[in-house]
Amino acid sequence: MTKENIFNKEEFADLLERAKGDRSINRFAEETGVSAAHISRFLRSLIEAPPTPETISKFSSKAYNDVSYRDLMAAAGHIAITKENGSIGLDELEDDDSDEVDNRRPYVPTRNASIDPISPNERRMEMENLEKRLFQVILSYLYEAPFQWNMQKPDSRMRFPDMIVDIDDEKYSRWLLEFKAYPEPNRGFGLPPQHIYGRLAMIEFSPKDKFTIVVNSERAFQYFLRRPPVSIRANIYVMLVDIEKGRVLTEEQLSSYEI
Question: Where are stretches of biased composition, namely Acidic residues (predicted)?
Fold first, then answer.
């Protein structure tokens, strides 16, 4: 760890106090999922080791007073922000569980990547909210569809796909949908099609099944069109939705079930 990347306990304590705001320690602990005793020790600068990026993500996701994920990461010594140009460098991030009771692997950004002021937890919640809005658009679309339909009851053991609908259509009898939301139109493409196609390859489809990947980004839509699956026997489509206007814009077929 370089001199510029040392854990500044006092600065971190000040930022954490600002992030807590007028809430009690117990209330802040309840909202973030970090123990009150642990928060108290950080506020009193009693912990020598910096919190993991995952713990910082929990703090920033519930922070008051505009305290950002990047501010806390810098104070913890995980990143260095140069005074000359405000650029960010990353120090080695060790998988230190000393401040985290959860044994899941902490979030570790790639070396020399830019650090988003929005934490991974906040980004994940944003995407979940967008995917709920995609679901509402599809639901409205179904209510106006020219065929009868019935949504299957969700199975808590199954995380893929997001939605299954039995439909009375001339071509298909079952419609499976997976929602992939993208917070900003110009952000990088986070999930490669190969990841979804790999999961699809493990599902047995019939010629009467239709699988649709629903996206809210023109860039993601075009990305899927340029990279269709080549060896999956399934009727796979990609659909572009305008969340703000609440409507389906277009749908294109990527592959077909060849008997």
Answer: 91-100
